[in-house]
Amino acid sequence: MPRLLRFLLLLLCGLALITAVGYVALTRTTHRWFETDLRARSLFVVTATKQLLARNWEIGREGLVDALEDITRDERVMGAAACSLDGQRLAVTAAYPLDFGCRWVLARLSQEGEGTDPWTTTEELPGGRVHLSAITVTTEGKPLGRVLLVHDLSYLERREATTRNLLLVAFFVLSLGAATITMIAERLAFRVWTSELRRALSGEVTRDFKPLVGDVRALVERLASERDREARGGNWNPERLRSTLTTHLEGERVIILANREPYIHEKTPDGVKVLHPASGLVTALEPVMRACSGVWVAHGSGSADKQTSDARGHVKVPPGEESYSLRRVWLSDAEENGYYYGFSNEGLWPLCHVAHARPVFRAEDWEHYVRVNRKFADAVCEEVDTEDPIILVQDYHFALAPRMIRERLPRATILTFWHIPWPSAERIGICPWREEIISGLLGSSIVGFHTQQHCNNFIDAVDTFMESRIDREANAIVQGARRSLVRPYPISIEWPVHWLESLPSVGECRVSVRKELGLPADALLGVGIDRLDYTKGIEERLQAVDELLTRHPEFRGRFTFAQLAAPSRTKIARYRELNDRVEALADEINARWGKDDYRPIILLRSHHEPPTVFRYYRAAELCYVSSLHDGMNLVAKEFVAARDDELGVLVLSQFTGAARDLTEALIVNPYDLGQAGDALAAALRMPEDEQRERMCSMRRMVSEFNVYRWAGRMLVDAAELRRRERVSGRLSAPTVLTRAMG
Ligand code: ADQ
Asked: Which residue has better confidence, 76 or 181?
């Protein structure tokens, strides 16, 4: 309904209400006035004829009738009667209504009118309403009897009707007048307002518009700069991410569900230590959480985790600069073995990576996976404080959690990110619980992958195994009233990396790392930084170094490759075997090419804290990432971020998601050992100019497409989805809930 029409309707309703209330008040008041008036008139008439009446009272009936006839000469007096004190009728005029006999009046008087003189009442007769008064007639202070006077009130009703009609006419005239004036005033005001605003926007600011114009200009500038930044794709930082969260999603905190915790408290002989896990997921999400605040729900896996958390498993992090909460969920050994080592890492991990490892699916592992997903989904629901929270579910450990959360929080915005590749539908078909996995993920508002290829594979799997409609244009899966977007969001790292703030210069790092490794100051150094995982191609990497030394003899004795390998999932036999194979291979290559103090491979098999990792990146001539299959690979991006000297060469496997972003790296097929060996040689020979050109381009890419952009893009898409759902009536404005949700 147009705004003006609504306003007019409101105005008419208001006027109608005022008229109705006015009418009732007016009628009541005039009624009261008339009654007082009649009472006074009756008294006046009887008092005026008092002597006449008293005289005729003695004479008897004939004289009284005449006296009463005199009184009723007033056209509004219908009739009059004279009664003795004990209720005998003494005289009555012809038109007096006999319904009000002397005895009847006496009876009413004894009930309600004793002591009132004159006594009056209003009564209803078939011919209309009448007013009756009983007035005592006295002579020399002695009461003789009563005179009853009946006034016709039909004229009063006529007057009321006239008043009502007048009021109705006044209402219509007033309404019409008010509506017309309002419309004219509104038109005029709008014209004046728009012309003033136009003048103000063109620079001629009037006093009234000064504050408004300031706001409008600020808004226009903000929108323009946002559009500009958007067009350039960069400049995402913690502030922009925070403001995206508040402006687009009306929220200030997010809840992350991830298996790995960002800070692990471990007991050591020197007391409790805080460790930063070697995990790409943590590397990416921790800065997002620091920017947004909220709660990170994760498995409490450290030996000192319980003693450093409160009774509900909460601890504030990061240590020393607490900006968000970590909620730890405790798992029994059986649960951890079944859900984490079993189904997640012996089933889903090899299923999703094309790295020639056979997935193992056990029914008891699946049962644990379902139970633990439920446990974590419950923990998430305990942490929310609105009906429509923003929940970021992370990775293949929690494929079922999105639907479990959705069942309890139908209005939540659930963004699920799958950090590893999503393989072809044919390969997914191997999993006995493929439908449950896909259906669980479709509980999300958005399912995100690193690449468009992974999105396409996921949509194919939905098409193959599920009942749903696929909106290919919007890349969305529609199930009933729910829609899940499927989008590529290439993950990244924070920019600038905060670990670099406290690190020495590249020159100093080169010196200190070479000293640490027992290398001469002019040694050429290559680095590999990974969890010890068969998908990372560590064996192929060492073989490529072997190839380099075979095919390019000038690097023998000069080139050393340092492999930092964090032990990972060592409860799984395949990982222990890999560890042994890598060690044997390093020994073999070292035996082949080693001489005196020279060993071409230095294997550092332990977890290293981020400052050490970044020192190694800065000290090296090259970094080789040789994954056989990798969702993204953040080591490649970290190496680029670490090199603020703009030197160093990245040799990168074509099977990583990062190879799509970092096209200036030397891209290799890690299975092709000759090609990889030659690429290492090319990297070591590359002139500084070319190194700088490639590195600058990659640094621009990583700085613009940083992790804040990754999270921001997801939040903006989620906001768009929420807006659409709200418009189509499935969501209403956000409301604050009581803690009863948990
Ligand atoms: P990951 O397989 O864990 O992650 P990746 O992207 O390679 O990881 O990141 C590994 C992280 O661990 C890096 O931050 C690195 O610095 C750190 N790290 C590696 N070795 C270390 C060591 N020896 N000591 C200490 N720290 C070490 C999964 C997917 C990836 C995806 C990420 C993020 O498998 O494809 O890029 O998630 O989505």
From this structure: 181
